[in-house]
Structure formats: C-alpha cells, structure tokens
C-alpha cells in the first residue's frame, strides 16, 4: 500500500504542497486532481523519490521511498520523457535496465506490449520519427514495462484519439485488476470518473476534498434535476433554491442548492404539460471540481 | 543485478561511439593525419617539378668567376646536409647571348652571362624562360654577392687563405652560471619548445570535445524530460559520475586513436620511402627524437611524460566535472554553449601562454598561470620542458588540480542534484547558490 502521510514541501518560502495525506491500496486507482500549479507534479516527484518532502513521509508497503524500491514504480510524466534519438527497442532496453530488468525480460515484455498497442512495426524506429500519439503509447509502455507495483500516470491521454484512449483504459483497468496501485491525474474529469474510486482535489498545495468518489457525490449538497417537457427556463429559475438552469438539446439541467429543493421543483413542473422526464442526478465530478476550486479562490 | 554506474557509463559510451558521426569524424581525422604526414609523397604522386634540378649554363667572360659561382651554387643548395644532392646542375658554355637565349628556350634552363667592368668585378645577366623559382632566385643572388665580395677582397690583395679566415664561422663558447643549465642543450630546448605546442594541441582539441559532449548529453536528457525517469532510478551522483567517466574514457580512447593514425601515417611514409622524396622528413623526426633522447632532456622525459599525462588526465576530469555542473544548470543546449565559451577561452589562453613561455622565459606571470588548474595541464609541462619549472612545482600544479576536482565533486554535486531537475532559468543563480549552501 502507498501511504502519503502529512507531506509538506517548501521551495524557499513558497509552500508547494501542504500537509497532504492519502492512501492507495493494491488494485485501487486514485485520482489526484488539481489545476495547473496546484502541486500535483511536486507530489509525484516526492513519491518517485526525486524530491525529499520538507515534512511528512511516504511509504510503499511500509518501506520509505528510496532507490531500493523505485524499481517497483512506473511513472508516465505529463511531458514526453523519451530520448527521441533512440529507437523504441533501445529506449526499452535503457529504461528497463534502469528498472533492474534483464535484456531478455525487457524484449519479451516489449513485444507483448507493442503487440497489445498495435504498434509492433515501430520497434526499430527512432522515437523522433513517430507521431505524437504513438510517442505517447511508447511512453505508456515504458512506464508499465516492469509491471510496476505503483503506477503514476500524469495526463496519460494527452495527444490520443478516442480509439487509443480506449486501449489505454483497458490496460489501466487490467493493471488495476492485477493488483497495481495506480495514481491518475488528468484535467479531463470524465476520465477520472471512469476509473477512480478514490480522489483528492488539491488547490494551492492543499487538499480541499478527498475520499471515495461515490461518497463525495452523495454528500455533495448541490444536485442536478433533468427535466424534459413544455416548461420554460424562466419559470424554472424563479423557483427558490434553483441557482442555475442549463438548456441542453431537448431538456433542462436544473441546478439546485440542496436535495430539499427537488420538491419545490417537482411541484412547479407538475403545473406544466407534456413532462416526460424528471430525474434527480448526482453532480458531475467536473462540477464538484470547479465548485471546490472556485471556493478556495473566492476566499 | 547490474551495476547502474557501469550500465549508464556503457550506454553513454555506446551512444557516442555507435553514431555515423563518430565514424565519419574518425575516418576524416585518419585521412587528414595520414595525409598530413605524407603530404610531400601525395604532392609528388600527383606530379610536378619538385625534384627537377635547375640547369644553369654559365658564359664566363671574366675568366675567373665560373668555378666560384659553381661551387657557391652547389654548396648553398645542399645547405647543412652533406648527403643531400644539389638542386643545381652547372655547366660552362662558350656562346653568344643570342645562342644562350636559344639554349635556354630549348633546354628550359637558366643562362648566366658573367662579364666585368672597371668598377665591378662581376656583372651578371640572367636569361630565363619564365620567372625564377623564389628559392633559386634568392640563392643565386646570395652566391653572386658572395663571389663579388671575394673578388673585391682579392683585388685588394688578400690571399685565398686570408679570405677563408674572413668567411670562417665564429666560434662562441657559452658559460652558464646556473647549476642545472648545461652546454650544448640550446638546440634541444629549441626543439622541445617547438615540438611541445604541437604535442599538446590534441589535448586542447580533446578538451573542447569533452566539454561539448557532456553538455550536449546532459541537455539532451534534460530537455526530453528523460532525466526524471533516469533520476527516479539512479541517484544524481551515479548519473553525474557516469557522464564524467564516459566522457573521459571516450576522449582518452579518441586520443589513442589520434596517435594510432599518426603511427599509421609514419608507417605508410616509411613504406613509401617518403624520406627519399624530400630529403628525409621522417629521418629528421628520427634524428630529432634521437637528439632529444641522447641529451639530458631525454633523461628528463622519464618523469616529464608520466607527470604530464597525469596532469592532463586530471585536467580532463576537472573539465568534465565542470561541464557536467554547468550543463545541469542550463535548460537548453544554446544556454550551455554560451556558458562553455569562457571555459574554452581560458583553455585557449593556456595554450597561447605555453607558446609564449619560451619567448618570455622566466616570466613570473606565466609561472603563476602554470599553477592554475584547467590551464596548468598545458602550461606546466611546457615550463617543465623548458627548465622553467621544477618537479616540485609540477607536483604542486597536480595537487592544485586534485583539490579543484575535490571541490567540484563536493560542491558541484549539490548544484547538479538541483540543476538536473530544474527546467526554468528564472532565479537560476539564486537556486544554485541555495543548493550550494544545502
């Protein structure tokens, strides 16, 4: 299990990460979310052992992070971390050896992964000759080459088309099922929602929300009601407790302050004709994220 | 489990060697060195009139100058070497000026019509088809001036023996008061002061090569962010030393290859009989080496060579450490190129000072510079060869370089650890000074 306990990181007087704690168990996919500059990369660097926390500690299966255990960690950085002058095979032999793998194991695993990602023909090609999407695939392959116990994915879907996103998703889920601990970071909340059971939102280096996604959504006060029928936006906005109405293609998304408001909305809707849909929905992660980040900045 | 230091070193070395550029550069170097050593053979092979003797037809209307001119021309073209053949073939003819002109045209020769007047013991008219070779013209002028002097002196009543006395080389006896300066070593010192800057030129070139190579490699890993993956698996210390090791092994190997190419060039020269073509360039090298080995400098080389090699290797290490630290601070190769310029200038200053050391013998400034790490590898051995530096002073230079290496490892590594993961040039120096303090 990965245990991040009260870590704080200062760069001079600037506090990049403040008192951050979370746990990731084997098989779990954990979403670490935050706007640019929130402290995600610093946190990843501390987990990878690239930076020492100013305070707190990080352990993997009870062992403090050191070069003795970084062989068990896979890291996909947000920017390309490939040596573009090398071929795919040379890159794999280099990174694999750094992870303590033998050449035979590296090549066997590389063939397996290239085949799974449908890019076997690029094995002898130089990385700089590959497209952005294929480079991202290779970067992902390099991160999982050693079947890591802990996998850190920082914006893994960057530069990928929907078909390739699907390939990545399958592999991430496969690794999770095989017991890997996965930390996932993305600005695309729909991706996070898809994988992560547990999340933490960090703003200005500090965690503002953390826990199981289902619980967070459940406990989140604001809800959405989807309404389809002969009703106007103005009529909905006049209901007490409704703070916004979003007009979608053939329905309205009514945003309410709390669950108790739904009865007022229902009463108002009943006064109108041809109502075919009235559904109370959990808010999306994106809404929760925007609201939480907004709250901090408003303060 | 692989040793990660040796793994990174071998990967780094392979990346340098297994390139088309390495192969191309070495083929080019080999060709240039081998060709340079055999340049006269190459020029001769392509043809030309390098060994053609100049035929001189002399019409001596004075009746007394032919022998003197012939002797003078043959002697001056042979120079100091007794075994060398003269480049002039001289023949006396009895012809008119018109006939001489015809002969010169037919034989592609040089005609010399020597007459006299009341005031001049000899007056010379030279007939030539084309412009004279510069060397021939200068030798002819010098010989004729000498002949005229002799004739003038003879006219004044001096006997040939008296004239010989006048032209005899002056005998100078040197006495030196300094204990370690011995008679007869002037030539050796002159040879060494000429030879040494040539010997150390590859060191200077390899230093530039080393600095650029380490800088480019560190920057390549930094700019591609591959550094984060590497440093998450090996410590910055291991990474730093792998770059230094690989760089030094590479330049030492490249240095050996340069010597190998020179050796091949000399072998080819001896097989091609190059010394016979130009009158013994190779044998002159051999003579020089023999001359040096026979002198007391030959004995000194027993300690000059190992001390010089030691200082050079240590200086390579110091340069590579400095290059690694500077490269870690920069965020792209352009920044590094700007940072390395002062290093190159310092190295160049050392090279020029080593050439000037012989001109400004005993200069305190040059002597002080010879202790300064980075330039001492070029300067200190030069002074040692010239007798301006003692073994103890050379050892002090080596110790100072060792101290520099220690400081670069101790403090440089602190900068390197922070620098390699820094991608912003904002507050760079502040960050580095902070890293130094930590």
The gross shape of chain B turns out to be elongated
Strand order across the biggest sheet of chain A?
6-7-8-3-9-10
- Runs of chain B in which pLDDT lies below 50 for 5 or more consecutive residues are 275-282
Helix percent of chain B reads over 70%
What pair of chains forms the biggest interface?
A: A-B, 26 and 22 residues
Helical element count of chain A?
10
The biggest sheet of chain A amounts to:
6 strands, mixed
Total of domains of chain B:
2
Structural class of chain B: mainly alpha
Biggest β-sheet: strands ordered side by side in the sheet of chain B:
2-1-3-4
Q: CA-to-CA gap between the ends of chain B? A: 32 Å
In helices, the fraction of residues of chain A equals: 25-40%
Radius of gyration of chain B: 31 Å
Flag low-confidence runs of chain A.
none
Mean pLDDT of chain A: 88
- Strand tally of chain A is 14
What is the beta-strand fraction of chain A?
25-35%
Question: How many structural units, i.e. domains of chain A?
Answer: 2
Q: Note the run of SSEs of chain B as H and E.
A: HHHEHEHEEHHHHHHHHHHHHH
Write the layout of secondary structure elements.
The complex is a heterodimer of chains A (299) and B (438).
Chain A: E1 2-11, E2 14-24, E3 29-33, H1 40-47, E4 55-60, E5 63-64, E6 73-76, H2 88-98, H3 103-116, H4 132-144, E7 150-154, H5 162-177, E8 181-185, H6 189-195, E9 198-203, E10 206-212, H7 213-219, E11 223-230, H8 233-237, E12 242-247, E13 252-256, H9 261-270, E14 273-281, H10 285-298
Parallel strand pairs in A: 3-8, 3-9, 6-7, 7-8
Antiparallel strand pairs in A: 1-2, 1-4, 4-5, 9-10, 11-13, 11-14, 12-13
Helix pairs in contact in A: 2-3
Chain B: H1 4-17, H2 20-37, H3 39-45, E1 54-60, H4 66-78, E2 88-92, H5 97-107, E3 110-115, E4 123-128, H6 134-155, H7 160-167, H8 186-223, H9 226-231, H10 236-272, H11 274-278, H12 281-294, H13 296-329, H14 333-359, H15 364-369, H16 376-385, H17 391-419, H18 428-437
Parallel strand pairs in B: 1-2, 1-3
Antiparallel strand pairs in B: 3-4
Helix pairs in contact in B: 1-10, 2-10, 4-6, 8-10, 8-13, 8-14, 10-13, 12-13, 13-14, 13-16, 13-17, 14-16, 16-17, 17-18
């Amino acid at each position: 299990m990965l245990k991040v306990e009260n870590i704080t990181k200062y760069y001079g007087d600037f506090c990049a990460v403040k008192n951050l704690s979370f746990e990731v168990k084997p098989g779990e996919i954990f979403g670490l979310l935050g706007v640019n500059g929130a402290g995600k990369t610093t946190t990843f660097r501390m987990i990878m052992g690239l930076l020492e926390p100013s305070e707190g500690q990080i352990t993997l299966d009870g062992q403090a992070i050191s070069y003795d255990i970084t062989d068990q960690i896979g890291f996909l950085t947000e920017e390309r971390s490939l040596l573009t002058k090398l071929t795919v095979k040379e890159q794999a032999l280099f990174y694999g050896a750094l992870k303590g793998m033998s050449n035979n194991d590296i090549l066997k695993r590389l063939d397996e992964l290239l085949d799974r990602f449908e890019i076997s023909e690029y094995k002898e090609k130089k990385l700089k000759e590959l497209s952005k999407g294929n480079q991202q695939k290779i970067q992902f392959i390099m991160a999982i080459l050693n079947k890591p116990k802990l996998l850190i994915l920082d914006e893994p879907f960057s530069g990928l088309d929907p078909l390739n996103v699907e390939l990545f998703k399958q592999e991430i889920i496969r690794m999770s099922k095989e017991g890997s601990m996965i930390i996932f970071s993305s600005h695309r909340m729909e991706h996070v929602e898809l994988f992560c059971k547990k999340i933490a939102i960090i703003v200005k280096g500090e965690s503002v929300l953390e826990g199981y996604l289902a619980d967070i959504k459940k406990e989140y006060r604001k809800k959405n009601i989807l309404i389809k029928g002969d009703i106007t936006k103005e009529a909905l906005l006049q209901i007490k407790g409704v703070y916004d109405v979003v007009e979608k293609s053939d329905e309205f998304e009514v945003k309410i302050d709390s669950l108790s408001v739904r009865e007022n909305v229902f009463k108002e809707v009943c006064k109108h004709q041809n109502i075919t849909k009235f559904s109370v929905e959990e808010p999306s992660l994106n809404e929760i994220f925007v609201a939480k980040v907004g709250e901090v900045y408003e303060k | 489990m692989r040793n990660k230091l040796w793994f990174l070193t071998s990967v780094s070395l392979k990346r340098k060697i297994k390139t088309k550029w390495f192969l191309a550069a070495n083929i080019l170097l080999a060709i240039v060195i081998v060709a340079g050593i055999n340049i006269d053979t190459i020029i001769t092979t392509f043809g030309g009139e390098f060994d053609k003797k100049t035929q001189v037809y002399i019409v001596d209307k004075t009746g007394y100058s032919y022998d003197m001119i012939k002797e003078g021309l043959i002697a001056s073209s042979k120079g100091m070497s007794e075994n060398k053949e003269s480049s002039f073939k001289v023949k006396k003819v009895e012809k008119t000026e018109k006939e001489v002109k015809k002969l010169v045209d037919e034989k592609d020769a040089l005609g010399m019509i020597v007459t006299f007047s009341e005031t001049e013991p000899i007056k010379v008219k030279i007939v030539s088809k084309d412009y004279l070779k510069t060397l021939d013209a200068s030798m002819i002028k010098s010989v004729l001036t000498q002949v005229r002097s002799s004739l003038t002196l003879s006219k004044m009543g001096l006997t040939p023996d008296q004239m010989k006395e006048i032209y005899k080389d002056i005998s100078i006896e040197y006495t030196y008061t300094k204990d370690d300066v011995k008679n007869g070593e002037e030539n050796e010192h002159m040879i060494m002061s000429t030879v040494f800057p040539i010997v150390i030129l590859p060191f200077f070139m390899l230093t530039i090569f080393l600095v650029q190579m380490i800088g480019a490699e560190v920057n390549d890993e930094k700019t591609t962010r591959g550094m984060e993956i590497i440093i998450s698996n090996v410590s910055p210390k291991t990474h730093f030393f792998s770059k230094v090791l690989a760089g030094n092994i590479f330049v030492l190997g490249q240095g050996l290859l340069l010597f190998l190419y020179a050796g091949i060039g000399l072998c080819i020269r001896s097989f091609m009989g190059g010394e016979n073509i130009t009158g013994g360039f190779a044998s002159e090298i051999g003579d020089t080496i023999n001359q040096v080995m026979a002198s007391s400098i030959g004995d000194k080389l027993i300690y000059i060579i190992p001390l010089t090699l030691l200082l050079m290797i240590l200086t390579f290490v110091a340069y590579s450490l400095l290059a690694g630290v500077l490269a870690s601070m920069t965020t792209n190769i352009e920044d590094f190129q700007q940072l390395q310029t002062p290093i190159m200038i310092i190295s160049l200053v050392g090279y020029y000072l080593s050439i000037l050391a012989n001109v400004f013998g005993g200069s305190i400034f040059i002597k002080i510079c010879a202790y300064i790490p980075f330039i001492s590898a070029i300067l200190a051995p030069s002074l040692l060869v010239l007798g301006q530096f003692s073994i103890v002073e050379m050892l002090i230079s080596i110790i100072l370089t060792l101290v520099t290496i220690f400081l670069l490892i101790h403090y440089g590594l602190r900068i390197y650890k922070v620098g390699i993961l820094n991608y912003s040039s904002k507050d760079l120096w502040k960050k580095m000074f902070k890293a130094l303090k930590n």
